[in-house]
Amino acid sequence: KMKKTGYFLVMITFLFISCTGTSGSKEGNTPEAVVATATDGGSEKAESTKGKPELLTAQTFKLKVMDYEKNPKQWIFEGDKPAIVDFYADWCRPCRMIAPILEELGAEYEGKINIYKVDTEAQRELAAAFGIQSLPTVLFIPMEGNPSMQKGALPKESFKQIIDDFLLKQPATGTN
Fold first, then answer.
1. Which among 92, 113, 118, 135 is annotated as catalytic?
2. Which terminal residue of the chain, N or C, has fewer Cβ atoms less than 10 Å from its own Cβ?
3. Looking at 65, 83, 95, 154, which residue is catalytic?
4. Cβ distance 141 to 82 under 8 Å?
């Protein structure tokens, strides 16, 4: 009976180690992850990214949001729908608090707005170009007019109010 208990503990320990071994990978490019991605046909990955914020580099930011090098003094939005840009860092606790909120909003407002994330540690030039000094800093970009920047974490209700009243609000056509 003692041998069975010892064997059981060894198996549980092995199972635990194998489950947590690759999930802690910062890059996600372990051979196991590459093989899993290559063999699953991409279906799981496509489903899991549905509505999730898209990580931008300086290059993709210039294509999808604004080319701040070509137009340093004038805001010219490159997007096809209103957008939210979350300037964050992995070590920032408030940034980690709003990350699931932004994922939920991405799913709720899918097709109506784009939600992007910029890692300020990896994209220092981009963070400097926008004067990011505190994290999180969230940039709200309507289709017309100037964007608005908010510093600090917001509750989901505040994000929804800004999306509904600022990003998705149709321009007034009548009198006040």
1. 92
2. C
3. 95
4. yes
Convert the pLDDT of each residue in 87-129 to its tens digit.
999 999 999 999 999 999 999 999 999 999 999 999 999 999 9
Asked if 87 and 137 count as a contact pair (C-beta separation under 8 A), the reply is: yes
**Rounded CA gap, 80 and 60, in Å?**
14
Is residue 164 a contact partner of residue 108, using CB atoms and an 8 Å limit? no
Q: Which residue from 112, 109, 132, 114 is spatially nearest to 122, judged by alpha carbons?
A: 132
Helix intervals (H) in the chain:
2-21, 31-39, 43-48, 58-64, 93-108, 124-129, 156-162
- Model pTM? 0.70
Other Cβ atoms less than 10 A from the Cβ of 165: the count is: 9
- 145 half-sphere exposure, CB direction, 13 A CA radius: 12
Cβ pair 138, 154 in contact under 8 A: yes
Q: What is the DSSP letter of 4?
A: H
Residues in the chain, overall count: 176
* 19 in catalytic set: no
What Rg do the C-alpha atoms of the chain give, in angstroms? 21
Closest CA to 55 of 25, 82, 89: 89
Q: Taking a C-beta distance cutoff of 8 angstroms, is the pair 46, 78 a contact?
A: no
